[in-house]
Design brief:
The structure is a homodimer.
Chain A: E1 4-10, H1 14-25, E2 29-35, H2 39-47, E3 53-55, H3 58-61, E4 67-70, H4 77-84, E5 93-96, H5 102-111, E6 117-119, E7 121-123, E8 144-147, H6 155-167, E9 171-174, H7 177-203, H8 218-223, H9 231-240, H10 242-265, H11 268-284
Parallel strand pairs in A: 1-2, 1-4, 2-3, 4-5, 5-6, 8-9
Antiparallel strand pairs in A: 7-8
C-alpha cells in the first residue's frame, strides 16, 4: 500500500517536481495533483509524467488529498495555508520545503483546522535551475532533510512525513525550528549576504574611471555565483529569518574585523594562523 | 629569429612551466634553463620537454640568459633578484609573474645593475593545481596580462616583455603598478579575505554542541573553495599589498553594514534593491 494516496503538490518546479518524481518511482504515492499558476508548466509536468493532473485553484486542488506538499517561494507558504485550510480533507497532512522554519511553522500550525496537521520540513538540496524541466528523481538522494516538529506536532503525521523523505532518499534529521533557522542562517543565508555585499563593494569601487569588474577572472565569477540568485527570494528570506541572519552577520563582522586588524598590524604569524584555521575547517568538509 | 635566445625560468611550476611551453610551441625562444630547488620537479620538466636543462643555483642558472622569468612565490621575488643581480649578463631583462606589483617593482628596479632591466608583470591566469605536471601551453590564451612599467622602465625591455606575453596568447594591458595593486586587491585579494573570514565565522559558531559545518551543502563548499588556498602565500600577499587590501576591506565593511542595516530595519524594498544591484553587476560579467 503506497504511503500516500492522493498528493497535492503546490508549485511543480525543481523542488516539487523532484519529490513527485521520486515518490512515483518508489511507489510511494498513488495519485499526484499539481497546483500552480502557470498552466504551461503544469501541462508540461503532466506530459513528463511528473503529475497525473493539474488544477490552478489551490482550494480545488487540495480536495481529497491526504498529503499536501508546498514547494512555493518561502514568503507565500503561510498565505497558501490560510487559503487552503478550509478545503482540506479530515486527516490531511500539510508539509512544506521552505528554507525558513520558525515563523512559517508557528503561523501554519495555528491556521490548521482541527483534525488536519502541519509538519515543517526543509530538504537541503537544489541546483541553479528551476522549473519542472529541471526536476529529477535523485535530487534528494543522500541529502539531508531537516524536519522541525513542535510540541503540537501530531506523532502519526510526523512519522508519515519522515517516511516520505526517507523514501525520497534523504537523510532525515529532526530539529527544533529555531535551531534550524540559526544553522541555515550561518551556512546558507550568511554566505549569500557576504556574496551580494562583495559584488556591490567591488562594483562600487570608483577610484578609477572604469568598471574594474572587467579584470575579474574565473575565481571571482565562481565565488560570486550565488550573488546571481533571485533578489525577491532573498529579500523574503532576509525578512523571514531576520534575527538569526543578524546574529550570523554580527559574528561575521567580528571575524572580518579581526582579519582587518591583522592586515593593518602586518602581523605575519597572526595572518598565517587565521588563514590556516580557515583552510583546515574548509578542507574538513570537502 | 626567436624573441628570446636563452631564457631562465625560476620556478618551473604551473606559471613558469606554462609560459615555457607556449613560448617553445610558438618558436618564441631558443633555449630554456629551469631553475628551482626541487631536483625531482626540474628533472620532470626536462622529461616533459618544458625546459632544456636545469640548475639549482639561481646565480649559475641566469648566466648568459637574455631574459629571466621569475615565477616563484610573490614574497621571494625581491630576494631572488638581489641574489642573481650580480650574475646577470649585460642587456638581460628580468620580469616576474607576481600578483603584487608596487613594492616588488620598486624594490627590484633599484636592485638591477646598470645595463640590465626589470619589467613587472602579472598574468591573470591560474588553476587550482600546481607543479610542472599541471602546466599547459594554453594557460594564458586570451587571458589578461597586466604589465606595470614605471618612468624608469627601458622602452626596448618593455617592448620585449609585451611581445613575449602577446606570443603567449595574452591580452596585454599596461597599467600603473599602484592601480594594478588596487584592482587586484578588489577582485582577488578581497574575495579571499571574505572567504577566509566566512569559514572562520561559521566554523566558530558555537551556539550548539556540534560543528554546524556538517550541515553545509554544495553551495557553501563551492563558495568557500578559495579559503582552501595556501595560508603562507596569502599571508605574504596580505603583507605585500597591505594598503590596497585595507582600502577594499573598508569599502566591503561599509557595504556589508548597509546590508545589515536593511535586514535590521526589515526594509523589503531596500533589500530587494541591494540584491538586484548585485545580481545585475554579477550577471554582466558572466
Amino acid at each position: 500500500m503506497p504511503l500516500i494516496h492522493r498528493m497535492a503538490v503546490v508549485g511543480v518546479g525543481l523542488i516539487g517536481g523532484s519529490l513527485a518524481r521520486v515518490l512515483r518511482e518508489k511507489n510511494g504515492v498513488e495519485e499526484i495533483v499539481g497546483i500552480g499558476r502557470t498552466e504551461k508548466n503544469l501541462r508540461k509536468a503532466v506530459e513528463l509524467g511528473v503529475i497525473d493532473s493539474y488544477c490552478q485553484d489551490p482550494r480545488e486542488g487540495v480536495k481529497g488529498a491526504d498529503l499536501v506538499f508546498l514547494a512555493t517561494p518561502v514568503c507565500s507558504i503561510t498565505r497558501i495555508v490560510a487559503d487552503i485550510a478550509p478545503f482540506l480533507s479530515p486527516g490531511c497532512i500539510v508539509t512544506d520545503g521552505g528554507s525558513v522554519k520558525g515563523m512559517i511553522v508557528s503561523a501554519c500550525e495555528s491556521l490548521m483546522p482541527e483534525g488536519t496537521f502541519f509538519v515543517g520540513a526543509h530538504p537541503i538540496a537544489g541546483t541553479e535551475k528551476s522549473g519542472v524541466d529541471a526536476s529529477f528523481s535523485t535530487l534528494y538522494s543522500d541529502k539531508r532533510c531537516i524536519i522541525t516538529p513542535t510540541p503540537e506536532t501530531d506523532k502519526d503525521a510526523l512519522e508519515k512525513v519522515v517516511n516520505m523523505w526517507t523514501v525520497a532518499g534523504s537523510q532525515v534529521v529532526l530539529m527544533d525550528a529555531e535551531k534550524h533557522d540559526r544553522i541555515v542562517a550561518a551556512i546558507s543565508h550568511l554566505p549569500h549576504m557576504v556574496a551580494y555585499s562583495l559584488v556591490n563593494a567591488v562594483g562600487g569601487y570608483d577610484r578609477y574611471d572604469e568598471n574594474i569588474l572587467k579584470y575579474s577572472a574565473g575565481g571571482f565569477r565562481d565565488f560570486t555565483r550565488i550573488a546571481s540568485s533571485d533578489p525577491v527570494m532573498w529579500r523574503d528570506i532576509a525578512l523571514l529569518n531576520r534575527d538569526a541572519i543578524l546574529e550570523t552577520m554580527d559574528l561575521y563582522i567580528e571575524c572580518f574585523s579581526q582579519l582587518r586588524a591583522l592586515v593593518e598590524k602586518e602581523d605575519g604569524p597572526g595572518l598565517e594562523d587565521f588563514f590556516a584555521r580557515s583552510k583546515q575547517s574548509r578542507d574538513a568538509i570537502i
